Amino acid sequence: MDEHGESNQKILLGITGGIAAYKSAELVRRLQNQSCTVKVVMTAAAEKFIGALTFQALTGEPVYHDMYQSSGDAMEHIELARWADKIIIAPASANFIAKLTHGLADDLLSTLCLAAEVPIYVAPAMNQAMWKNPATQNNISILQQRGIHFLGPDQGQQACGETGPGRLLDPQEIAAQLLTSQQSTQLTTGQRLAGKTVLITAGPTKEAIDPVRFISNHSSGKMAYALAQQALQAGANVKLISGPTSLTPPAKAELHAVESALQMHSAVMQNIQDTDIFIACAAVADYRPATVAANKIKKQADHLSIEMLRNPDILTEVCALKPKPLCIGFAAETENLLENAQKKLNAKNADLIIANAVGKNKEGVSLGFNAENNHAYIISKDHCIDLGSHSKNQLAHQLINHIAEVYEKKHTS
Ligand code: CTP
C-alpha cells in the first residue's frame, strides 16, 4: 500500500471448484476498494458453482478460462502470468493444491501458475477431513517450502455440515493479508536469513532413573524440526540440539543428539557463541532424579519416592548472555495460556514467546504435544498476535517469517 493506504496492485484471481466460489465475488470488491485491478481466471469446476458473468460484470474484463479460446491468443497463459503483481487462488480446492504441488499444466489456471514468476497465494477451502488428510498436508508443506503463501483456512461450520478447519478465510481478511504482505513476499521467496545461524532445541529430554527407566514427556519434536526446515529454507545455518525423537532431521541441519536436560544444556552453551537466533522449542524436563541407580531398581515397598533436582533453565541462561542472540521461547500450557506465556516472557527475558494450547480445540482437534496441529500466539512486550490453528509446518513457516522480521527490525534500528 502507498502512503494513502491505497494499493494499485494488479491481482490475478484464480477461482477453483468449491461451494466457497461465491465468496470470490466479495474478494474482487474488497480488492477493487483498495484500488487493485483484478483479472479473473476460472477453472471448469469453478464455473459449476458460479457463473463467469458475475466476475465479468464486477471486473469489467473478460473472464479467462480456456487455454485456447478466450482471445485466440495462444500465449495468453504467459501474458496473464506476466501481467500480474500477485496471483491469489481463492478458493483453492484440494485437487488444485495437488496440481500446483506436482506442476501439472492441464488447464489455463494451472498452466499460468507454472509460468508465473510473481508471488502466488493460496486460500484453501475444502472439507475438514480433506484438509487434514496427510496427502493435502504434505502438498501444502512442499508448496510452502517453495515460497507459496497460504492464507487460512478458517475453522468452523462447513457447507457439508461438518465442523473443523477448511473454511475459506473471510474475503476481507484475504484481501488485507494479500495486500500487506509485500515486504515479506519479497523476503520469504528470497534467502531472508542468509548468513545467520539459528540454534534450535527440540523434542523431549529423558531423565534416567536407572539403566532401564527414565522420566520424559510427550513432545514429538515436530514443531522444532519444522522450524529447522523453514529456517534452512530461509537460508540460515541451522543447529538442531535434539532430544530423542522418531523424526528424520532436515539433511542440511547440523544435528547434536542429546538425551538429558544436562546434556542439552551443555550442547547449547557450547554452540551459542555464533548464534544469531536461539529458538528454545524443546520440552526440557524441569527436574532430574538426584541419583541414577547403577542397577535396575527392584520392587520392594508399596511406595517409592524419587528425589529430584532442578535442571538448569537453558532459555533463561541464554537470555542472560551479553550480548544475547534474539531469543524465542515456547509456552505450552493447559490453562491460562496467554497469562502464563506473558509471565514466561518477563521471567526469562525472552524477545518472543510462542504460546500454544495443549489439549483439544473446540472442534475436538488435538493440539500441542505429539499432535499435527498447533493453535499459536506470538507474544512480545508490545503485541500478542493470534496465528490461529494450523499444521505445524504452516505455523513454522509463519513463525520463521515473523522471527526474521523481528531480527531485521532489531538490527536496523
Ligand atoms: N526451557 C528451557 N530449559 C528448561 C525449561 C524450559 O530452555 N529447563 C524453555 C523451553 O524450551 C520453552 C520455555 O523455556 O521455550 C518454557 O518452557 P516450559 O516448560 O513451558 O516452562 P517452564 O519454564 O519449565 O515453566 P513451567 O514448567 O512451570 O510451566
Write a structural description:
The protein has 413 residues and is an alpha/beta fold. The protein folds into 2 domains: 10-190, Rossmann fold, CATH 3.40.50; 197-293 and 302-410, Rossmann fold (3-Layer(aba) Sandwich). It is 35% helix and 24% strand. The strands form 6 sheets. It has an 8-stranded mixed beta sheet, with helices on both faces. Strands 2-1-3-4-5 form a 5-stranded parallel beta sheet, with helices on both faces. Strands 6-7 form a two-stranded antiparallel ribbon. Bound molecules: cytidine-5'-triphosphate. Residues 201, 261, 280, 282, 284, 286, 311, 313-315, 329-332, 344 line the site of cytidine-5'-triphosphate (CTP).
Question: What characteristics describe this protein?
Answer:
Rossmann fold; 413 residues; alpha/beta; 5-stranded parallel beta sheet; 8-stranded mixed beta sheet; elongated; single chain; 2 domains; 21 strands; 15 helices; 35% helix; binds cytidine-5'-triphosphate
